[in-house]
Amino acid sequence: MDDAAVLKRRGYIMGINLGEGSYAKVKSAYSERLKFNVAVKIIDRRKAPTDFLEKFLPREIEILAMLNHRSIVKTYEIFETSDGKVYIVMELGVQGDLLEFIKTRGALHEDDARKKFQQLSSAVKYCHDLDVVHRDLKCENLLLDKDFNIKLSDFGFSKRCLRDDNGRIMLSKTFCGSAAYAAPEVLQGIPYQPKVYDIWSLGVILYIMVCGSMPYDDSNIKKMLRIQKEHRVNFPRSKHLTGECKDLIYRMLQPDVNRRLHIDEILSHCWVQQLKPKSQTMTSTTATKDGESSRNTGQDLLRVPEAITDKKSTARLEPKEDPKLDTVLEKEEAVQVTRQSETLGFTAEVQHQSPQTEQGNASSPPPESVHS
């Protein structure tokens, strides 16, 4: 039975092809039950690699089924046929993804960036509170609804954090994602704290939002890593960013994992808080409120997530274990990390300025070019 017939029996009228990889494709479809268009991701188990089938697909399905947040793309249904095809029915996006939006319109005004970044951070907090990490946060995976609100998508590299007998989150050894958004510890191929990895990617995303360019050029990974480890962040003078905005980015792009901000610290940062209603506080109960999805969002989205394409890479990172690590490690194999500078359509703006010392608080943000 072909895909159209399978979907018809489930109450979907198949539409156009939205994207295709070697073992997965995404089709648009009209849901007769929901009365609006959806995206259907179709995965052929017979063509998919073993690592994907045994590790990543089960994780993605488990996590998609449990997520329910207004700033995360909604999954409506997941089913499988006897011939080995998996169908994931989800929201579509009208306004495309954030990368396309920035490439078309340029850098966002801080007020607009603040609103979108708060939505994204709220979604990440919701995930982290559930011990779920995304591990592929990037502009292509942030969809926009009809009102240009952020919808986090593509949980193909996501996972539930494991904990040891003492309740500590175990380090991860799966090196996945896009090099331009990857934290230095991931680029170095050493075991890393998965939640802390997500925070670095958030810093790259916010930089792109307000600068319209990449913070680092991933055409030379070795050079990029050296700059990152020196904690050098170059801000284009032409953007006239506020000190608070630069401070937040600088603290997220912190190479020292023990000093990098946590998601609660991001949400309580003075730059993010400028937009939040006074009645809303950053407590553990906020995630529960944020987790209540709007029942009307399905009609607002008309764009497929990026998870459909194979994540191929020109830069393979091999894992290396640090013998001095005393934390329990999760035994995982390396996954290729993709380069993004060419895909993005814009590169890092390199500022040749004298490095200066890191500033210690939000009231004293880093200058145009800084390092620690």
Automatic annotation (TrEMBL):
<dbReference type="GO" id="GO:0000287">
    <property type="term" value="F:magnesium ion binding"/>
</dbReference>
<dbReference type="GO" id="GO:0005737">
    <property type="term" value="C:cytoplasm"/>
</dbReference>
<keyword id="KW-0418">Kinase</keyword>
<feature type="domain" description="Protein kinase">
    <location>
        <begin position="12"/>
        <end position="272"/>
    </location>
</feature>
<dbReference type="GO" id="GO:0005524">
    <property type="term" value="F:ATP binding"/>
</dbReference>
<keyword id="KW-0460">Magnesium</keyword>
<keyword id="KW-0547">Nucleotide-binding</keyword>
<keyword id="KW-0744">Spermatogenesis</keyword>
<dbReference type="Pfam" id="PF00069">
    <property type="entry name" value="Pkinase"/>
</dbReference>
<dbReference type="InterPro" id="IPR017441">
    <property type="entry name" value="Protein_kinase_ATP_BS"/>
</dbReference>
<dbReference type="GO" id="GO:0044877">
    <property type="term" value="F:protein-containing complex binding"/>
</dbReference>
<dbReference type="GO" id="GO:0007286">
    <property type="term" value="P:spermatid development"/>
</dbReference>
<feature type="region of interest" description="Disordered">
    <location>
        <begin position="332"/>
        <end position="372"/>
    </location>
</feature>
<keyword id="KW-0963">Cytoplasm</keyword>
<comment type="similarity">
    <text>Belongs to the protein kinase superfamily. CAMK Ser/Thr protein kinase family.</text>
</comment>
<protein>
    <recommendedName>
        <fullName>non-specific serine/threonine protein kinase</fullName>
        <ecNumber>2.7.11.1</ecNumber>
    </recommendedName>
</protein>
<keyword id="KW-0597">Phosphoprotein</keyword>
<dbReference type="InterPro" id="IPR011009">
    <property type="entry name" value="Kinase-like_dom_sf"/>
</dbReference>
<keyword id="KW-0832">Ubl conjugation</keyword>
<feature type="compositionally biased region" description="Polar residues">
    <location>
        <begin position="337"/>
        <end position="363"/>
    </location>
</feature>
<dbReference type="GO" id="GO:0004674">
    <property type="term" value="F:protein serine/threonine kinase activity"/>
</dbReference>
<feature type="compositionally biased region" description="Polar residues">
    <location>
        <begin position="278"/>
        <end position="299"/>
    </location>
</feature>
<keyword id="KW-0479">Metal-binding</keyword>
<dbReference type="InterPro" id="IPR008271">
    <property type="entry name" value="Ser/Thr_kinase_AS"/>
</dbReference>
<dbReference type="GO" id="GO:0031514">
    <property type="term" value="C:motile cilium"/>
</dbReference>
<keyword id="KW-0067">ATP-binding</keyword>
<keyword id="KW-0723">Serine/threonine-protein kinase</keyword>
<dbReference type="InterPro" id="IPR000719">
    <property type="entry name" value="Prot_kinase_dom"/>
</dbReference>
<feature type="binding site">
    <location>
        <position position="41"/>
    </location>
    <ligand>
        <name>ATP</name>
    </ligand>
</feature>
<keyword id="KW-0221">Differentiation</keyword>
<keyword id="KW-0808">Transferase</keyword>
<keyword id="KW-0217">Developmental protein</keyword>
<feature type="region of interest" description="Disordered">
    <location>
        <begin position="278"/>
        <end position="301"/>
    </location>
</feature>
